[in-house]
Amino acid sequence: MGATITFKRPDGRDAQGYLANAGRGNAPGLVVIQEWWGLSEQIKAIVDRFALAGFDALAPDLYSGVVVPYHDADAAGKAMASLDFKDATAQTVRGAAKYLKQNGSKVGITGFCMGGAVAIVAAAQIPEFVAAVAFYGLPPADLVKPADVKIPLQGHFADRDDFITPASVDAFEAGLKAAGKDYEFFRYDADHAFANEQRVAVHDRRAAELAWSRAIAFFKKHHFA
């Protein structure tokens, strides 16, 4: 349904991503951020699904073409560790937002796992976004604090998550509440990456569909559709 495109970062360099357009010319924009595996077919399918839901959706390729197989968590960890989060957010992610804003629409951001962390960083640092949804991802404390978040934020987290633990979610939520931020967090009786249907060992269809419906409603609430 979608296609690979090239767009400009604010620094003038080229970046690539997977774009799927909605069926109307004035659709709202949505930047979709990959998991630590890379811009996989799973993420492309999510971009396609957002387009069917009425969004012009663009997933920037933060790994420049590298996609790590699901069985190789060590390689995925190394790929994520080598990513310059500040550059990826300030340049590649912001470039994607600017690309989608060309038609004058509002733009939001969502991400999964590593992408969820990037989405929250963007919610604190990138002025083009008006709302953010993070799936089982939180940024390092030295990069973004809850009080730094500047736009409405929705989060989806798993109670059986060994990566983004319930305790870390509770702590971040407490910070958002103390800072008076506009947010809503949801927790699911599921495992990390429960929305990834390609990972059958952890995929939870009921939780994934509930999270999806909440995310769509959240974006529409913030003047997307």
Structure report:
The chain has 225 residues and is of the alpha/beta class. The protein has a single domain (3-221), classed as Rossmann fold (3-Layer(aba) Sandwich). The chain contains six helices and eight strands, in the order E-E-E-H-E-H-H-E-H-E-E-H-E-H. The protein has helices spanning 41-52, 73-81, 85-100, 114-125, 166-178, 205-221, and strands at residues 3-8, 14-20, 29-33, 56-60, 107-112, 129-135, 153-160, 183-191. An eight-stranded mixed β-sheet has the order 1-2-4-3-5-6-7-8, with helices on both faces. Helix 4 (114-125) links the parallel strand 5 (107-112) and strand 6. Helix 3 packs across helix 4 (114-125). The longest helix is centred in the C-terminal third of the chain and has 17 residues, at 205-221. The radius of gyration is 16 Å and the shape is globular.
